[in-house]
Predict the 3D structure of the following.
Amino acid sequence: MRLRRKLTLTLWALASTFAAGNAFAAGLFARGPFLQSLGKTAVTIKLDLLTPEPVTVEVTGPDGVAKKVEATDPRRFHAVRVEGLTPSTAYRYRVLAGAAATATASEEGHFTTAPDDARPFKIVTYGDSRSDPAAHAAVIRAIEGTPSDFLLHTGDMVAIGAEEDDWRGFFEVENKLLRDRCVFASVGNHELAGEKGVGAATFLRYFATADDAGKDMPKLWGSFRWSNARFFLLNAMDAWTGEERAWLKDELDRAAAEPGLVHRIAVLHHGPYSSGPHGGNDRLHENGVTQLLKDGKIDLIVAGHDHAYERGTGDGLKYVVSGGAGAPLYPRKKRSPETAVYESVHHFVELSFDGDKVGLVAKRASGSVIEKCGFAAHGPWECEKAGAGPGTSAAPASSAGPAGIQTSSACACSAPGSGSVPTGAVGLAAMAGLVLASAGRRSRRRR
């Protein structure tokens, strides 16, 4: 076990050295800076340093004026909140680490604040990125070239949340992407694996949910508003008999009266429906959570856990399973009546929001399209077939094209980090994957 970890760490270190422009390979930065809690007027910049140092975050707007926020307490981990920003505005930023006279600068990052009106927007969702760094890197390269306002991760970022090496590997692959795009993440069972409490604490350190003002919440669940949609990030591994269930009911009740709110999206790792080996999350059914979601007018459930792409409708709830961002792929296990499409493939999903319309494009890591779908708020799926690939197990629910459901392609987004990873880094990442595979992931990495 120790040998496998040492080999993995060595290969990842070599890969980062070959990755041109990667902040991991320069100066004091161990990981980051990366974006969190991005809102209309503020953002949090997080980073890990190799040694305890003070930092200064510089954020520059379109007027060329830089806003500086200092964190003078020397420490390795920093979470710096930058406030007083303007909605729907593009900014660039960098972090200076160390004493002012000899400070080391990070690479420049970019972000656009959330809108304060109901304008169109686009997101990318992906999940289960653990265990295979080469496959993970392939998906992330495709996402880097796909514009979006922010990212949704459905959980299982790493194989063991209590293992530092696993988080190091995750950030090696996603550092550039997360520098320029905020990821909102739901916790997976693998984030909670390992020494009790360590995985959860590490997840919250990096990806804590935040309230609408951007304040980190010490819970494995939360919600946030973007344009005319509210996203509910849930801890699927909860027993669903206590605090989280009560919070969800109250939050859905509050959303019912929220001005201008059109869409409600639930994001959780193990969802209520799946035709994969794990199947649906029984706790959600047994404790009435699926009924809560239905009564709360949830438009879409976005989940992971089974390592495939799946789309369907269960009990009147539309859902997508996106668990193909790097983990070992799963074949279809059963013929669930809820399932419309199932494909065992590394992939990601684009979701576009425009008024009461939502558009979906599911793409393989190669960039080829699995399918295109859409729906109007609280309406059924309408899909067009876009060339079935290997592993497709079912046809889309409707042969009719999503006429009238198409959303605008406009968004406040760009792909500032687009571009390929240098061949040397990919080759070494693949070697790391082979080392891990040969050492064996054992049962804890297969579920």
